[in-house]
Amino acid sequence: MNYKLTLTALLLTTFFASTDLVNAHDGRRMKVTVVNNQLFGQGYISGETPTDDGGGLVRPYYNAVHGHFNNVGSSAAIATLPGFDILTPAEDGLIGFDVTLTLLSGGKWAGAPTQDGTGLAQDFGTPELSNLTAAETLFLGMNGAAGGFSTESPGAFTIGEALSGPVEDIDLTYEIDLQPTDTIYFLEWQLSTDNPGIASSESLYTILSPDGANHVEKMHFQALALERHLGISAVPEPGSISLLAFGVLALFSGRKRSS
């Protein structure tokens, strides 16, 4: 018996049983998109009536978005967001092709400055990032399926196979066998496709901050600061403004929610 898979299944069962998940997949997500023949991830907040978390309903940068762990039991934490969506494969030249999400590495921002109450106005300085220890291994799965890999033994997920149309709710599970308090974790990924005319993405980051009762305990504003630090702020040329506008429209009009 695979102990890790059994533990993950148990944690997921406990998590979903104890959490209000009427719209389980709504929240901070990343839309896979193509800009100037290169893959990017556009962070956004999904839902019928999404609420801006301070970083923008659609992030003003590419390739970084955060979620929050939920503590499960007494010694572990798990998250099911950020997730991914491929909403505009026809416009992006991905019809008939695969899209792969490959884990490159993991890291952390330990001991980030504490929140002073000024929210986004606070300057947290340049994040001091470091490598994970063996005790901080993150385990990754996709859509609750068997299999997966970890930061100790990286692998890849095929998030779109011979695409014939949009694929929504590509949801990962992020598990760690401890309960973070003052540390924000991140995973470095790369998007790629077998379409020879589309280049692989630059590094893309999903960021995970601690569980907590409020934004201070969740290190929410520190996580937004790390998004801005790791994200790609420069909008690619040429035609970037019209492409970004199209992407925003696609996020809020093209995504149909599942119950």
Automatic annotation (TrEMBL):
Signal peptide: 1-24
One Pfam assignment: PEP-CTERM
Assigned keywords, A-Z: Signal
InterPro entries in the record: Ice-binding_C
Boundaries of every Ice-binding protein C-terminal domain copy: 234-257
Coiled coil: none
Protein's recorded name: PEP-CTERM motif protein
Lineage: Bacteria, Pseudomonadati, Planctomycetota, Planctomycetia, Pirellulales
